[in-house]
Amino acid sequence: MSEIVIAIDGPAGSGKSSVSKQAARRLGYAYLDTGAAYRALAWDLLDRGVDTDDAEAVTGALAGFDYSISIDPDDYWVRVGDVDVTEAIREPRVSGVVSQVARVPEVRSTVTALFHRIIAEAPNDGIIVEGRDITTVVAPDAQTRILLTAAEEVRMARRSAELTGESTARVAEQLQKRDRADSAVVDFMTAADGVTTVDSTDIGFDETIDRVIGVIRGDA
Ligand code: C5P
């Protein structure tokens, strides 16, 4: 079981997944991408033909959700049943419905319980858990809690550089829409009490990781 839990929240395109994964590598910690669980569920519902706008149908389908995720930052994968969905859950058709799915209260409680089990069973000394409600709901007692932010234009630019075949305007529109929908469910734009903000607007990837590790180590 992990002795140390590091909670990192932030909006889409803040770089939290890549920063958290790399920080976990450097510290020898496990890494849990919670957004991937919501995405895997959205993928599964689309695959099963469940109407993602119908909260009751989504709740009813939860019992059949068979998901597993690697918490090894060097060997990251996500599966639904025995299907590897690591790449498929990043597709725009999944990003387009995931917020609808994630706002259903039964989804949040079921998925949060899964996270608690994964955190409790992680064999490493520590685990970095990243998402939207980790510092406030999933692990409010974490030793270190960080909000990773970046200016909106920078987040849009980073995300469109990652996605090929999508226009910058389309990426920006989808990201803004998703942020708006997600913020109505949990506030991940402002740091809760005791949460340290790391703003990556004007700093590169490596420096962001250094800052995050500095906060984890308790440097001034
Ligand atoms: O982090 P990522 O952008 O992959 O998350 C995908 C979606 O999962 C978010 O847009 C949000 O709807 C949901 N999510 C959430 N709570 C978390 C992590 C993700 O609601 N802790």
Task: Indicate the topology.
Layout: E1 4-9, H1 16-27, E2 30-33, H2 34-47, H3 55-61, E3 67-69, E4 78-80, E5 83-84, H4 92-102, H5 105-121, E6 126-131, H6 134-138, E7 144-149, H7 152-162, H8 168-183, E8 196-199, H9 205-217
Parallel strand pairs: 1-6, 1-7, 2-6, 7-8
Antiparallel strand pairs: 3-4, 4-5
Helix pairs in contact: 1-9, 2-4, 4-8, 7-8
The structure holds cytidine-5'-monophosphate.
User: Any idea what the CATH superfamily is called?
Assistant: P-loop containing nucleotide triphosphate hydrolases
Round the Cα radius of gyration to an integer and report it: 17 Å
- What's the SSE pattern? EHEHHEEEHHEHEHHEH
Oligomer state equals single chain
List the uncertain runs: none
What's a quick, concise take on this entry?
The chain has 220 residues and is an alpha/beta fold. The protein has nine helices and eight strands.
What does this structure look like?
The chain has 220 residues and is α/β, with parallel strands linked by helices. The protein is 48% helix and 15% strand. It contains nine helices and eight strands. Helix 2 (34-47) packs across helix 4 and helix 4 (92-102) packs parallel to helix 8 (168-183). The two termini are 29 Å apart. Cytidine-5'-monophosphate (C5P) binds at residues 12, 34-35, 38-39, 98-99, 102, 131-134, 178, 182. Belongs to the cytidylate kinase family. Type 1 subfamily. Residues 6-216 form the Cytidylate kinase domain.
Spell out the key features of this protein.
globular, binds cytidine-5'-monophosphate, three-stranded antiparallel β-sheet, five-stranded parallel β-sheet, alpha/beta, 220 residues
